[in-house]
Design brief:
This protein is mostly helical. The protein has 8 helices and 2 strands; from the N terminus they run H-H-H-E-E-H-H-H-H-H. A two-stranded antiparallel ribbon has the order 1-2. The longest helix is centred in the middle third of the chain and has 22 residues.
């Protein structure tokens, strides 16, 4: 269908060996640690977050191939990125809510699906305001792991005021709270209680 999945039985032992997988299979990662940091993301066979990352990787690989003069790779990777973009729009877009769903087989909509889509250029220009309204409504419903993508999405949409409010927040789910708890580095979770 133009999307990738870790649940379709295509993870051969050769693939696992080539990517040096420690376990016998792969699984989708939306955020870390699990729990509140996923905004109740609903995992399905074809997930929005994984496919947004896949789309971004294809776009980046296309740029690299172009710089290296690998014209056959440019053509192939560009084809794959266009196919992924089209599938993302047709299979994951909720026309009524004007937001991206978590996956093909769910109607659930999370911060993660929409911030990743916005950060990686999957949101058509005419829907950016709708997606940003939703993103603002969710606050910091993600962990430190994906907060970078949230900030990328917010600033890419031109909402510097909201981005700055996230960066300077003194709420429990903030970088300030990490300082308040005594950490001198970015923690894996906003607070020790989320670990």
């Amino acid at each position: 269908n133009g999307l990738i999945s870790t649940r379709t039985g295509k993870q051969s032992s050769e693939l696992m060996k080539n990517i040096h997988a420690l376990r016998g299979s792969m699984a989708d990662l939306v955020d870390w640690p699990h729990g509140e940091e996923t905004d109740s993301f609903v995992f399905t066979t074809y997930n929005a977050v994984v496919n947004a990352l896949h789309y971004k990787a294809l776009c980046d690989m296309t740029k690299i191939a172009k710089l290296l003069g690998k014209n056959d790779d440019v053509i192939l990777l560009d084809k794959y990125s266009r196919e992924t973009y089209k599938a993302f729009q047709s299979l994951l877009w909720n026309k009524n809510k004007r937001l991206f769903k978590d996956g093909v087989d769910t109607e659930h909509i999370s911060l993660h699906s929409n911030m990743m889509a916005l950060a990686f250029g999957l949101v058509p220009e005419k829907y950016i305001d709708d997606v940003m309204t939703f993103i603002r409504s969710r606050g910091m419903a993600c962990g430190p792991y994906t907060s970078l993508f949230l900030l990328d999405a917010v600033y890419k949409a031109g909402d510097a005021d909201y981005g700055l409010s996230l960066l300077t927040s003194k709420e429990e789910r903030s970088w300030y709270n990490m300082i308040r708890t005594g950490s001198t580095v970015t923690m894996e979770a906003w607070d020790k209680k989320y670990k």
